Amino acid sequence: MKIHTLMLRQGKNRKRPTTIKDIAKALNISVSTVSRAIRDTYDVGQETRSKVLEMAAQLKYRPNLNATGLVKSSTKKIGVVIPAITNYYFSTVITGMKDVARENDFQLVLYISDDSSSSEADILRNLSVHSVDGLLICLSSETTDYELFAELMEDGLPIVFFDRVPSEINTSKVVQDDFNGAYRATTHLVRQGYRRLAHITGPSGLQLTEDRLAGFVAALRDAQIQLNPDWVIHSGFSRQHGFEDTLLLSAMSERPDAIFAVNDPKAIGAMLACRTNDIVVGAEMGVIGFTNDPVAEIVTPTLSSVAEPAYEIGRKSCELLLKHIKKENFPGETAVLSGELFVRDSTKK
Question: SUPFAM superfamilies given for it (predicted)?
Answer without folding.
Answer: lambda repressor-like DNA-binding domains, Periplasmic binding protein-like I
